[in-house]
Amino acid sequence: MHITHWWPFSLSPRLEKSFTDIKNRLTFEDVLLNTRQNTLIISRLAEVMAHHVPEIIERDGLPYLCHIMNGWGNVIYNEREMIDELLPFIHRNESDAPFILQCEPEGDFHPWQTFAYVVMAGVSPDKEIAGTGITIKELARNSRHINIKKDQGQELGHLLYALSYIDPDSNTAPFVIENVAYNLQELMEKAVHAHKFGTFEVCRKVHLTEGLCTISANVPEFAHYKPVAEVFLNGQLDILFLLCIAMEEAKNALENNVRPSDDSLLREVRNELKIADFLENNAFYIGHLAELAALATKAGYKIRREHINALNLAVNTLNEIIPRYLPYLFFEDCFLHFGHYRRGVSLLEAVNGVANGDPSANIDLAAYTANLDTLTPFRTNPAASGALSAIEKAVFKLSSPVNHERERFNTVLEHYIQHARHSLEPRGRFKHFRRIGPPSWPRSFHYEFLDYGDKIGLEIHIESDTVKAMTTAVEHMTARVQALFSEQPVEWDPLWYKNKGRLRILFNDQYPEPQIAEAMEQLISETFDAFDPIASHLRIAQ
After folding, report:
1. Interval 192-202: pLDDT, tens
2. 3-state percent breakdown (helix, strand, coil) of the chain, nearest 5
3. Which pLDDT tens digit goes with each residue over 112-127?
4. Would 542 be classed as within a structural domain?
5. Is residue 167 a part of any domain in this protein?
6. What is the mean pLDDT of residues 177-184?
7. What is the pLDDT of residue 1?
8. What is the pLDDT of residue 541?
């Protein structure tokens, strides 16, 4: 595919003029990175993570863990490396080979997201996980079933990037999408087509650019893709000029104590970028593009001078603004935004050095890694955001804290935890559900407390194709469970999670909390011995 230009926006005359003006300005005006302020922000974001990391890990999801690594590296926490926290998400197939589910609730969100962020953190693909002998490379080689639609080429960015380091061979084993095997050449064509014609979404498109740039540089047979990858790279980095407009307009509003009007240039550029007024969205976008520039530099691409200047300007300005708002962030919900920002800006000094011809400059992917055990934790406090002025709140919004558990739901959990069997404690940190299951069970098969707002469900869930063998076993248990809870509605729901099924018992809000907790104990006692021989020995065929 011959491509000479890529640009996803159609700008108004006013915004087009501002874009052209700032691009021309930054083509000739050198902007130096404020390294002192940048280092301060990198350090402070590590101190914030040092406080909030247990809450994030408690959320019990692989996307949360891999985004910790994306922003803070293979961190040390409680004297353990973060990569060891991946262990509960490793499944084994019918050949007993370890793998990670792709695009499934108990696995990766994007295809190969975990592998990409491990590699981006400078961790060797041969790194062993938690003393098991299992390596990232082995996991990746077995995680070839990609649960996306065949026309979703925009999802392939993480995969192509990680593959270029883990298995940089054009003849690598095929990937299976909708039961069809695709070789790497076919995936490359899907990715290029999606970048050119697919929908514009910041995260997917930037990672797609990273993947195309890196694999075309690392796999010799794909070197002919480098020109088109460079077109995509330059188009992505041109977006920095719009972000610079947003940053400068926001800074001017803060300095002049002016509330942005609905028809202001600031509102227009934010609407065009689809970032709204949220501070973390600005960090997310700038961080992604800083990360892209660094990874492209490491792959041997030359970043244009005007893009270096735009990066420095955007980062310098946002770094001045962040300290105003950082103490009031609801960090658990926006840590991934600031994680992308932290890793991107941590590499920016090296990107400047390479662009300036400094022979000692080096893109060290592991250099930003934090040892959280050695830091003084910094706790953010969203409840104190009243300290911000009305103008500050008008220029940047902060995400509101997600509601915590209903008091009633929390009370049920507390009663259950008092008597829970070892390995059957509730896991996760979500306001409306908790999963329960021993380590020997595949994670996508579990008991669950689920709060409906006016009822609480005690449920047994089957949540992936890989454990559909449990469907019949659970369905056959319905009558037995109904006999156990003769006064409660017991339902077998065959449509749950793409027709995998679930069994549930609903308790209304008049039912005492201790008795709901006791009912979960009874449900487990009645069914566990029937499920365990199957679930504990289930080898998950992909």
Report:
1. 999 988 766 65
2. 55, 10, 35
3. 999 999 999 999 999 9
4. no
5. yes
6. 96
7. 59
8. 47
Q: For 200-250, how does the pLDDT look when each residue is reduced to its tens digit (9 = 90+)? A: 665 678 999 999 999 999 999 999 999 999 999 999 999 999 999 999 999
Q: How far is Cα 503 from Cα 82, in angstroms, rounded to an integer?
A: 35
Q: Helix count (H) and strand count (E) of the chain? A: 20, 11
Count how many domains the chain has: 2
Three-state helix/strand/coil letters over 338-352: HHHHHHHHHCHHHHH
Q: In what order do the strands lie in the sheet with 433-436?
A: 433-436, 445-451, 455-462, 502-508, 490-493
User: Could you tell me the two tokens for 122?
Assistant: 């400078």
Judgement on whether residues 436 and 344 belong to the same structural domain of the protein? no
Is residue 87, in this structure, part of any structural domain at all?
yes
Question: What is the rounded CA–CA span in Å between residue 160 and residue 112?
Answer: 9
Domain end point (choices 365, 395, 425):
395
CA–CA gap between residue 321 and residue 370 (Å, rounded): 23
Whether residue 229 sits in one domain with residue 300: yes
Q: How far apart are CA 344 and CA 225, in angstroms?
A: 25
Its domain, for residue 385, covers 13-395
Residue 304 sits in the same domain as residue 221: yes
pLDDT, tens digit, for every residue of 251-285?
Answer: 999 999 999 999 999 999 999 999 999 999 999 99
Residues 526 and 459 in one domain: yes
| Residue among 188, 106, 172 at smallest CA distance from 140 | 172
- What predicted TM-score, i.e. pTM, was given to this entire model? 0.89
Q: Is the same domain home to 520 and 419?
A: yes
CB 112 within 8 A of CB 121: no
Strand-pair partners of 98? 92
Mean pLDDT of 345-367: 95
CA distances from 183 to 129, 375, 398 (A): 28, 46, 44
Instruction: Phi first, then psi: give them for residue 371, nearest 5 degrees.
Output: -100, 95
β-sheet bridge partners, residue 427: 435
Cα–Cα distances (Å) from 323 to 38, 64, 318, in that order, read 11, 24, 9
How many Cα atoms within 13 Å fall on the side-chain side of residue 232? Answer: 31
Q: Which residues pair with 492 in a beta bridge?
A: 503
Environment class of residue 175 by beta-carbon count within 10 Å: exposed (0-12), middle (13-18) or buried (19+)? buried
Question: What pLDDT digit, counting tens, does each position of 150-171 carry?
Answer: 999 999 999 999 999 999 999 9
Q: Which residues contact 387 (CB under 8 A, 6 or more apart)?
A: 327, 328
- Token pair of 367 as six digits: 């250099």
For 222, the 3-state DSSP assignment is helix
Which SS3 state, helix, strand or coil, does residue 311 take? Answer: helix
DSSP-assigned letters across all residues of 436-503: E--TTS-TTEEEEEEE-SSEEEEEEEE-SGGGTTHHHHHHTTHHHHHHHTTTS-EEEETTHHHHT-EE
Distance CA 540, CA 542 (A): 6
User: What token pair was written down for 236?
Assistant: 């992505």
The percent of residues above 90 in pLDDT, for the chain, comes to 83
